[in-house]
Amino acid sequence: MKLTAISLLVSSTAAFPALLNLKGNEKLLDTSVLDLNKHKAKKNIYPAADPKNCPFNPDHVPAAPWNASFPYNHANNGLPGKGKGGYQVPAPGDEEHRFIHPTATDIRGPCPGMNMLANHGFIARDGITDLAEVTDACQNVFNMGWDLANVISLVALVLGDGDIVSRKFSIGCDATNRTAAAPQVAGSQPGLNGHNNFEADASMGRDDFFLNEGDN
Ligand SMILES: *[C@@H]1O[C@H](CO)[C@@H](O)[C@H](O)[C@H]1NC(C)=O
Ligand SMILES: *[C@@H]1O[C@H](CO)[C@@H](O)[C@H](O)[C@H]1NC(C)=O
C-alpha cells in the first residue's frame, strides 16, 4: 500500500524537476524519504520471520467469551454491537478481563493496542487472535463502530500477514504453524512484526514503519 503511494510520489516529483534540484533549506520536498536503498539498509528491528524464537503456548485459550453480566457494547461473534460506549473497561468485577501480565509463552508485538487487548483477555491472551475477536474487542473496548472495527481487523489480517482461510493472525512474531489453515503450504505468515511482505498503515496510533525510520 505504502509502496504504491511512494512510487506515485516519485513519478510526480520527476514531473517537476525543479522541486528536486533545490538545495538545503530551499528544498520544497524532503526527497531522502524516497531513497529506497536507504530504507533497505535499515536494520529490521522486528525480524519478518523468526518462528523459532516465537513464544509457543500449546494450550491456546480464545478470548473470554462475551458475558451478559458485562455486556460493554454487546459486540459478539464479529457482529455489530450497540455502539453506545460510556462505560468503564474493564468493568469493576469483570474478573475475566482483568490485567494479567503476559507469560513467556504469550506473543506480544509492536501494537500497544493489541498488546493491551491481549493482556486483558479481550483477544486471546497468547497473542494468536482472529478476525471476530479483534472486531468484537475494538467495539467493546475502544467503542469503534462495527464498520471501522471490521476494516481495521481485516487490514491487520490480510496486510498484516495473517491467514485469510483460518482468519487468524499473530499480534507479534511469526507463528505460522498456529495461524495457517494449512501451514505446510502457507509459506510464512510473519504476524504484525513482519515488515517485509506488506506494509500496512493499519494502526490507529502508530506511525508507519517504512517512513518513520523503523520507529513505529
Ligand atoms: C510451532 O512452532 C513453535 C516455534 O515457534 C514450536 O515450538 C512448536 O512446537 C510448533 N508447533 C507445532 C504444532 O508444530
Ligand atoms: C461472566 O463474567 C464473570 C466475571 O468476569 C464470571 O465470573 C462469570 O463466570 C461469567 N459468566 C459467564 C456465563 O461466563
UniProtKB/TrEMBL annotation:
* Essential cofactor(s): heme b
Which keywords belong to this entry?
A: Heme, Iron, Metal-binding, Oxidoreductase, Peroxidase, Signal
InterPro entries from the xrefs?
A: Chloroperoxidase, Chloroperoxidase-like_sf
Q: Which Pfam families match?
A: Peroxidase_2
Annotated GO molecular function terms are: metal ion binding; peroxidase activity
Question: Which segment of the chain is annotated as a signal peptide?
Answer: 1-15
Q: Identify the residues that the record assigns to the Heme haloperoxidase family profile domain, covering every copy.
A: 95-216
Q: Which family does it belong to?
A: Belongs to the chloroperoxidase family.
Q: Which PANTHER family match?
A: HEME HALOPEROXIDASE FAMILY PROFILE DOMAIN-CONTAINING PROTEIN, STERIGMATOCYSTIN BIOSYNTHESIS PEROXIDASE STCC-RELATED
Q: What is this protein called?
A: Heme haloperoxidase family profile domain-containing protein
